[in-house]
Amino acid sequence: MSVAYTERLDTAGIKPSTGAVGSSYDNALAESVIGLYKTELVKPRRPWKGFDDPEIANAEWVDWYNNARLHSRLNYLSPTEYESAYYAQQPPRRPALV
Q1: Domain annotation covers residue 65
Q2: Is the same domain home to 39 and 2?
Q3: Same domain, 1 and 29
Q4: Is 54's pLDDT higher than 70?
């Protein structure tokens, strides 16, 4: 984090929400997802027409990202497809005795 930013927070009596001072890697995953969110949803759909539009679009994007989006880390399968393939490879489980 920049020294000026850290000093300004200190002057205002605000504690930063990051980990170690000077470590820019603490938020890398969150920043990556925010970048995808802006690129895939926010920028292509603007300008928004009503107050409910961003909320509905956000719910749709999160559902798509978590269930249908192809992920390179999952061999270009969606999370739903990957999970189904995983459980299909597991041996059958015996039912619990009551």
Answers
A1: yes
A2: yes
A3: yes
A4: yes
Q: Any idea which of 1-5, 14-18, 24-28, 59-63 has the lowest mean pLDDT? A: 24-28
Residues 37 and 57 placed together within one structural domain of the fold: no
CB 54 within 8 A of CB 63: no
- Tell me the two tokens of residue 70: 């192809």
Mean pLDDT of 22-45: 79
Domain presence at residue 97: no
Domain total of the chain: 2
Span 76-97, average pLDDT:
92
